[in-house]
Amino acid sequence: LAQLYGPLNQLSYIYRSVNQSLVDTEKLLSLLNEPTEVNDKENAPDLIVNDGEIEFDDVHFSYDGRSPALDGVSFKVPKGASVALVGESGSGKSTILRLLYRFYDLGEGQGRILIDGQDIRDVTQKSLRQAIGVVPQDPVLFNSSIGYNIGYGKFGATPEEIEAAARSAQMHERIISFPDGYNTKVGERGVRLSGGEKQRVAIARTLLKNPPILLLDEATSALDTSTEKDIQKALQNLVKGRSSLSIAHRLSTIASADLILVLKDGHIVEQGNFKELIQRDGLFASMWADQVSNDDPAVSISGQSIKK
Ligand code: ATP
């Protein structure tokens, strides 16, 4: 039965190309409120990723042309570095991810976003999105087998590759506990997966896609300790060797991030690693103190629970 994945993948290819933009949008549902039209320039070249270095250079952005969502944001994600975005609700975290995925283009005078020195407005959206893997808070799964849902990350993925990705995403043991293993149907008409399991499926899918750049929107919901550990391990395997930007709620992500950007009202108000920010005793340290005194240790720093 496992041999079915290859042909299934191929059969789905046409469907997939036709629906690619729709599915990309779906994948980003938790990042996105409304899809917008961004057009490639005439004869735009493809993005060429060597190191996967990301740079935001004095980025200003407003959804309504009046109130700024980002107000002069500059930072760099060096090759392979993990950057965690923290800040209260509405501070601009998702806007940073949406702009990097090019749901909106920056206008004249609104700054630049560069990947390996190339302005993302100048390259094709397709090549940009091929280079970026997205793990949303609440991943969308197809009403199909769990193997298909993982294999979707790579055209023609073999059952061995699918299983390796599932193992790396800490999902293999769970999958083989299902009645039909990798052929078990998931989604509305099949086995219902928990939020943590869906996120691990999305991680496995992204491992197969193997993009140099990652955007992660961590779930805010509290998870039990063993699920938390599994997700932590899966995320570690995923971010290794890739440049990543995470909307971070988990202590593990925040503590191990190479750089934490603390956002407030569309500005970066503090940046540094965990130790530096605690020593600085500013906004991050007070957010942290709030969380530590919070009754619910499973979620560490959540934008939703940070006091204004
Ligand atoms: P949360 O933690 O709640 O997801 P966030 O830090 O990700 O918040 P953003 O979603 O980036 O914040 O929002 C930044 C600002 O832009 C907020 O003032 C928000 O109200 C505004 N905003 C976000 N999306 C839209 C939109 N589609 N249309 C209009 N304004 C928006």
From TrEMBL:
Span of domain ABC transporter: 54-290
Subcellular localization, as worded in the UniProt entry: Membrane
Homology family: Belongs to the ABC transporter superfamily. ABCB family. Heavy Metal importer (TC 3.A.1.210) subfamily.
Listed name of the protein: ABC transporter domain-containing protein
Organism expressing this protein natively: Gymnopilus dilepis
Parent sequence residues shown: 570 to 877 of 1151
